[in-house]
Structure formats: C-alpha cells, structure tokens
Specification:
Elements (H helix, E strand, L loop, with lengths): L2 H23 L2 H17 L8 H20 L1 E6 L6 E7 L3
Antiparallel strand pairs: 1-2
Helix pairs in contact: 1-2, 1-3, 2-3
Length: 95
C-alpha cells in the first residue's frame, strides 16, 4: 500500500484509535505514545492481505497499549458501569 494512502487512512482513524488508547491507558500522553508506536508498525507492515484496515489499526493500537501497561506494571480502571468509558483510577497489575 502506498505510504501516502496509508497515512491518510491512519489519520482518518486516529480519533477512534486515540479514544481506544485513552480508555485503555487513562492518559492522553500515553495514548499518543501508543498511537505513535502503532503508526510505526503500520508503516513497516505488509498490509496487502489486510481487508479491514480500521480493524487492523485498532488491534495494533490495543496491543501497543497492553504492552505499555505491562511494561509499566499499571492498568487503568475504567468506569464502564456508568457507560462513560472514562478512566477513574490507576492501579498495579496483579501477576
């Protein structure tokens, strides 16, 4: 896939990807870090067999978030009961 087309598609999906990353990480700065890593992976990947690019971007972004949480030993608790999807606390990951 052409680099400019890929960049345009990633930019189009960026608000959704940032929201996913924020919900997982609880921090906009951390979400932006995860998006940067996801973009680097996308730019290097062979995407010829990918039929759902938005889904692929979401999966890569979520995995980057999980990697960041594991590396930091932290996980964000999200207020999903109220349906707001807003991070409410950050705690240690139990291993």
């Amino acid at each position: 896939m052409d680099g400019e087309v890929l960049a345009a598609r990633f930019a189009h999906d960026r608000p959704h990807l940032r929201a996913v990353a924020y919900r997982l990480l609880g921090s906009l700065d951390d979400a932006d870090d995860a998006l940067q890593q996801a973009w680097l992976k996308a730019a290097r990947a062979d995407l010829r067999g990918v039929h759902n690019l938005a889904g692929w971007f979401t999966t890569v972004t979520a995995r980057e978030c999980l990697d960041l949480l594991r590396a930091r030993g932290r996980i964000a608790a999200v207020d999903v009961v109220a349906g707001r999807g807003v991070p409410i606390a950050v705690g240690r990951v139990l291993r």
